[in-house]
Amino acid sequence: MRFVSVGNANVDITVFVERIPDQDESVPSLAATVTSGGSASNFALAASKLGAKVAMIASVGNDTLGELYLKSMREGGVDVEHVKVVDGRRTGIVVVLNVLGESRRMIESLGANLELSPKDIMEREEVLRVADEVHMASVEVPIARAVTELTKEVSWDPGTRVLRKNSYEVWNLVKRVKRIFLNAKEAKLLSKEEDLVEAAKKIGREGPDEVIIKKGSGGAIAWADGELIDVKAIDVKVVDTTGAGDVFAAAYLVARHRGFEVLRSIRLANSAAALKISRPGTTLSLPSWDEIAAMEFISYWE
Q1: Domain that holds residue 118
Q2: Has this prediction a pTM greater than 0.90?
Q3: Nearest Cα to 283, choosing from 251, 247, 259?
Q4: Fewer Cβ close by (within 10 Å): the C or N end of the chain?
Q5: CATH number at residue 39
Q6: How many domains does the chain have?
Q7: How far is Cα 145 from Cα 147, in angstroms, rounded to an integer?
Q8: pLDDT tens for residues 29-69?
């Protein structure tokens, strides 16, 4: 299976601390990692580890951070031939603060990610047209529109930031994608429905074959072929949630392209996300297909 991932290319600096320091105070970190990041990049590495051949379309700076990013992606088996390298711009950075017992906090600087344009997408038409699946994550609407003009085999995880800024434009593009991934807040924002089942149905009527809504500890639901599918989450100790949604999407799409039905694919995606959040770091803790299959068997089969 051939996937293309379109979106941000970052370097993630993740720090684990017991508490956030006060002003003019420093606190020791419990652990720290520096890895490649960005939703689309996380997806690409996860899908590659699960057996897909993945090419990345993104933009990095011609700097040390860009070199680190490209090296990390190559080591993860991702084709970076189509990544744009920009002179005079710094590669995107995200600082992730994981505080014990609290939700993560993130500070992002988009940098060279802002240089990716619809023209860049059109220039990469060949690799997009031959892909079995093109996955877009947190891309701006003009980029999403350009991708959907070249192929119909598209899945989209628009992300909260893009939806808050352009929910109307995202809604107008929904009909042009095959699958859409949303969390609960995003589904309500996009559909203007408070009930998640009604939200899934409304979005599904707009065009996507499969609407997948991630509910965190509540599991996930999908609206596909006129049927609602609701799958409970797997209870694990939460260590780091960064990238969990990207790993979920990668496992789901790999499962679908391996011929699994929607229900089984969501179970496998939930299993992948559970494994991811139980481990520290983002790309350093990606699960293998055998691990996911074992977790799914233990968690869902009686």
Answers
A1: 2-300
A2: yes
A3: 247
A4: C
A5: 3.40.1190.20
A6: 1
A7: 5
A8: 888 888 899 999 999 999 999 999 999 999 999 999 999 99
